Amino acid sequence: MATHTDGLRCRLVRSREATPSGRHILGRVAFLDHPRPPVIDEGVPDMGVHLAGDGTDLVAEVWETDSPVVSGVYQDLAYAHDGEYLFCAGQVPENGSYREPVRNAYGAAFDLISKLEYPKVMRIWHFINHINHANADGLEIYRDFCLGRAEAVDRHLGPADDMPAATGIGALGGGISWYLLASRTGRVRNIENPWQVPAPSYPHRYGPRPPKFARATHFSPHGLDGAGDLFVAGTASILGHETVHAGDIEKQCDVTLGNMAKVISRENLLANGIDDGRTLKDLRFVKAYVRREQDIPVVRAKCAEAFSGTAEVVYFTVDICRSDLLVEIEGIAPRATS
Ligand code: 3EB
C-alpha cells in the first residue's frame, strides 16, 4: 500500500481552479444558490449545497489527496477513495419525515465505510433545509433528523457510540445534503469540551434522541502519532446544555469563539491524552453560519479579531438547529507540515 504521510488537504476555491499536478481530487462540495444532487463528474464526487443567497460569495470546498482515486456511486451516495482516505456525499430529498430516509442514508454510508474499509470517520457535515420547521408529524425537522441518525448509529455502531465532529445546520433548499471524510489507517480521537455537555448526553427536552457528534476530532495519519489535524465541530453559544445570550449576537459570538478556543487548547487536548494544542489563530477553512443577515458585520468583526488574517472565513445566512441560536462557527486546524 502507498504510504500517506501528508495526504488529505482542503482548499476553498472561488471558482473551478486547476488542481496542482500530482494532486488528485477526492471530493468537491460547492456552496451554491441552488441544490445539486451528488454526481461523479469526470471521476470526482461533486455536490452542490444550497447555502448561498443574494450577494453570498459562491465558493467550493475541494478535498485533495496525493494518490489517484477510484470513484463510484453506492445507493444514493457519490464517493471516492485513494487507499487511505474516503470522501462520500449524499442528498436526502425533501420528506415529511426524515427519520427513516436519514437512517437509511447513514446506513448506506456505514455499509460503504465497512465494504471499502475506511472505518475511521473523522468529520461529517449536514445541511438541513427548514431545520427549525415542523415535519409532517409536528416534530421539528432537526429533531426528526437526529432521531434517524441516532437509530443508524445504534444499529451500526451500538449505543456506546463514538461519533466524530460534525456540523448540523440549516440550508436554503435540497432536503438534507451531507458529506463525510474517513480514513483507513489513521488515528481518530474524538474530543469533548468540558464547558459543554456532550451532545449525545443532551437532556430529552432537546428532542427524542440526542445529536450524535463530538465537539472536535483529532486525526493523525498512520505513523505520525503526535501531529494531527483538528476538526472543530459546528460550535455555538451553548454552555452546559443551555443556549446562553438569546438575542445577543455579540455575546453569542464571544461564547462560541471561547468554546472553540477551549476545545482545541493544549490543556484540553492533554486532558484527552493528546500531546498537541492550538489556538484560534491556527484555524483555517472557517465557516460562520449566521441566522440573520444583518448580524454578519458583527460576526465578521469578531472573526477578524479572533482568527488569523490568512484564515479563509466564509459566511452563510442560514437557520441554526436551535431557534435561539444566532451564530454557529466551525473550522479546521491542520497539523504543521514541514
Ligand atoms: C450544538 O452544539 C449546536 O447535529 O450534527 C453543532 C454541530 C450542532 C453538529 C449536529 C449540531 C450538530 O448542539 C448544534
Notable features of this structure?
binds 3-(2-carboxyethyl)benzoic acid; six-stranded mixed sheet; 5 helices; disordered N terminus; alpha+beta; 35% strand; 338 residues
How would you concisely characterize the structure shown here?
This protein is α+β, with helices and mostly antiparallel strands. The protein has helices at residues 99-116, 141-156, 249-264, 266-271, 296-306; strands at 9-13, 24-32, 36-41, 44-50, 59-65, 70-74, 77-81, 85-92, 120-129, 165-171, 176-183, 187-191, 216-220, 229-235, 238-239, 242-243, 284-290, 313-317, 327-333.
Strand content: 25-35%
How many H/I helical runs? 5
Indicate the low-confidence ranges by residue numbers.
Answer: 1-5
Q: Could you give the order of strands across the largest sheet? A: 6-7-8-11-9-10
Multimeric organization: single chain
Cα shape: globular
> Could you describe the largest sheet, including whether it forms a barrel?
6 strands, mixed
Structural class: alpha+beta
Distance between the termini: 23 Å
Radius of gyration: 18 Å
How many E strands? 19
Q: Secondary-structure element order, as H and E?
A: EEEEEEEEHEHEEEEEEEHHEHEE
Bound chemical compounds: 3-(2-carboxyethyl)benzoic acid
